[in-house]
Design goal:
Largest sheet: 7 strands, mixed
CATH topology of the largest domain: Rossmann fold
Helix content: 10-25%
CATH architecture of the largest domain: 3-Layer(aba) Sandwich
Bound molecules: adenosine-5'-triphosphate, magnesium ion
Radius of gyration: 31 Å
Number of strands: 29
Structural class: alpha/beta
Number of domains: 4
Number of helices: 13
Length: about 600
């Protein structure tokens, strides 16, 4: 694993090179598209495909999408957009046992949240959302064709026998005793498999390729199995189901996909992908040119886990509040946390695609988010750890307006009014009775600026019986109001934010830190005993969530769910999309202003 370095320009992209070469050569120019998926015959009389390329994002609806999927989504939809093509959202729901509607709905939401669309034109246009299970009839018919052409046979070995006869990386496999069954016998058995005459595992349909192939995936891979299970879409229509490695190339071909982009673990499957589609094209069942499988390396990030199994464990064992816990590296979690879809786009552009396994520093992700939010988010004031500041020479019943810009980079966004009065809330850390070296904010005898307000001089503090500071006293310098000619008449080095105590609004704020305290949760570390096995749960950061009550400037009271702001000096915060309501805001901290990880710990 290597660390990829930060770069501002979009990284070079070998996949774009392939697409551009194909477009230049006119490889797909004669491809036809019937407006919906189908075998070659359905497309034969159809017009030429207006889409120059077709890609797809094919999630299995057996879990929530995570940051890794975001890379794949943005890559596939992004390429289609860039080259005037289409990207299909295809639910790869061929496995009857695992899928659920809840996951389908959530995947749809997350892909849309990232700004990607499978819909072309208005209603009645092309709606490229598909389900692999809609293709079961074709997949079955294609298997019948393979049998008739002598490319598939029904094997009746037990699972153990098949495993033993598969061979190893260094030793060839052994032919099954059933390998030379006649076409007629295979046809009969396959129909009876479908009719439900046999128990799960009694027979299996295998491609007939080569048991001595160096690539184990070509040693007569299984293509159809018996599984007496109810499928969420097809119900009890089937008791035989296609294997993933058989189904996936067919799904691509039926949908006229041109570039089938997947992660590197499928590299060894590519020869079977090509073999299968070549056989089906010979039989006239799928249209040429065939889709091309292209692999890239998975996204891995420090301080998080992206394995479905581990994410499920975090939820099931209640280490987090649910799939959308703002600390979860799921897209529903990211949304609730307040991360920006544009921040995902910038991040994915920056890291690029390659075939090298890499572990990306989480800071790169956060930096991309900060960069987008700095540009997009309006500024507001919140005091997270409130301490009372009393301005002794300011009249008790008097208030006046101060003007604060909504966005320093965008004056066109205007200003808002912040009431100023005798009692304010400031951050407790902005006062030190006995200042540390270099401390420039409030301490007795020192002057500092109340941002957008006045320069004040600290005169002392009140303490409770335990010696805890409960209020700070100061006097203000009336000629120094921000925005007036006298603003610069007194030079100060410290600058602090504040809200009027009479107007401020107390609200719950949730501060999040990394869910794991080490870069590679669960990985062995230097000095570990040889037999030590680590559990990723032992690396959970137990202080990853803190709930505080902050004092907010009054304009934040009516924040809409999912509205995000920069709270000056503190970072970016979003009104929680579930728990926050206008009038009763609850904020999540999305990310701090600067990377503080490692400095505090
Ligand atoms: P499973 O083990 O259940 O197959 P999966 O993470 O591969 O888990 P899928 O629903 O099959 O989940 O994934 C859909 C698509 O997302 C696939 O094309 C897959 O290659 C891609 N994908 C999954 N994880 C990552 C990742 N970490 N980086 C980039 N792409 C990913
Ligand atoms: Mg997968």
């Amino acid at each position: 694993m290597s660390n990829e370095t930060h770069s501002a320009a979009p990284a070079a992209n070998f996949i774009k090179n392939i697409i551009e070469a194909d477009l230049a050569a006119g490889k797909h120019a004669q491809r036809r598209w019937a407006g919906r998926p189908g075998p070659a015959a359905d497309h034969a009389a159809a017009p030429l495909d207006p889409a120059r390329i077709r890609t797809r994002f094919p999630p299995e609806p057996n879990g929530y999408l995570h940051f890794g999927h975001a890379k794949s989504i943005l890559l596939n939809f992004g390429l289609a957009k860039q080259y005037g093509g289409r990207c299909h959202l295809r639910f790869d729901d061929t496995n009857p046992e695992k899928e659920e509607q809840e996951y389908v709905d959530s995947i749809v939401d997350s892909v849309q949240w990232l700004g990607c669309s499978w819909q072309i034109g208005d209603k009645g246009g092309e709606n490229n959302r598909y389900y692999a299970s809609d293709y079961f009839d074709w997949m079955f018919a294609f298997a019948e064709y393979l049998i008739s052409a002598g490319h598939a046979y029904v094997d009746s070995q037990s699972a153990e026998e098949m495993r033993a006869n598969r061979g190893t990386l260094t030793q060839p496999g052994k032919d099954s005793p059933y390998r030379n069954r006649s076409v007629a016998e295979n046809q009969d058995l396959f129909q009876r498999m479908r009719a439900g005459e046999f128990a799960d595992g009694a027979h299996i349909l295998r491609a007939k390729i080569d048991m001595a192939a160096p690539n184990i995936n070509l040693r007569d891979p299984a293509i159809y199995r018996i599984r007496h299970a109810t499928h969420h879409n097809t119900g009890d229509k089937w008791c035989v189901y296609p294997m993933y490695t058989y189904a996936h190339p067919i799904e691509d071909a039926l949908e006229c996909i041109t570039h089938s982009i997947c992660t590197l673990e499928f590299e060894d499957q590519r020869p079977f992908y090509d073999w299968l589609l070549a056989r089906l094209a010979e039989g006239g069942l799928v249209q040429r040119p065939l889709p091309q499988q292209i692999e890239f390396s998975r996204l891995n990030l420090t301080y998080i886990v992206l394995s479905k199994r581990k994410l499920i464990q975090l939820v099931d064992e209640k280490h987090v509040s649910g799939w959308d816990d703002p600390r979860m590296p799921t897209l529903v979690g990211a949304r609730r946390r307040g991360y920006s879809p544009d921040g995902f786009k910038l991040f994915v552009e920056r890291i690029g695609v390659s075939k090298n396994d890499s572990l990306i520093d989480y800071v790169l992700f956060e930096d991309a988010q900060r960069e987008v939010m700095n540009e997009s988010d309006q500024r507001r004031i919140a005091v997270l750890d409130p301490l009372k500041l009393i301005i002794d020479n300011y009249p008790a019943s008097q208030f006046e307006d101060c003007q604060a810009p909504n966005h320093p980079l965008h004056p066109e966004l205007g200003e808002r009014t912040m009431p100023f009065g005798r009692e304010l809330w400031i951050e407790a850390e902005d006062f030190q009775e006995v200042p540390e070296k270099g401390f420039r904010r409030l301490f007795p005898g020192n002057k500092a600026r109340l941002r957008y307000g006045y320069v004040v001089e600290c005169t002392g503090c009140d303490k409770d019986t335990d010696g805890k500071v409960i209020a700070v006293h100061c006097t203000y310098l009336p000629e120094t109001k921000s925005g007036t000619p006298g603003a610069d008449s007194v030079k100060v080095k410290g600058n602090l934010h504040w809200v009027s105590a009479a107007h401020a609004y107390p609200a719950e704020i949730r501060l999040f830190d990394r869910l794991f305290s080490v870069p590679a949760p669960g990985a062995r570390r230097e000095g570990d005993a040889p037999d030590l096995e680590r559990d990723f749960l032992d690396d959970l950061n137990l202080a990853s969530k803190t709930i505080i009550t902050a004092q907010l400037e009054s304009s934040l009271k009516d924040a809409q769910p999912e509205q995000r702001f920069q709270f000056e000096r503190h970072g970016y915060f979003v009104a929680d999309r579930i728990d926050s309501q206008p009038g009763r805001p609850v904020f999540n901290r999305t990310v701090t202003l600067k990377d503080s990880w490692g400095k505090e710990n």
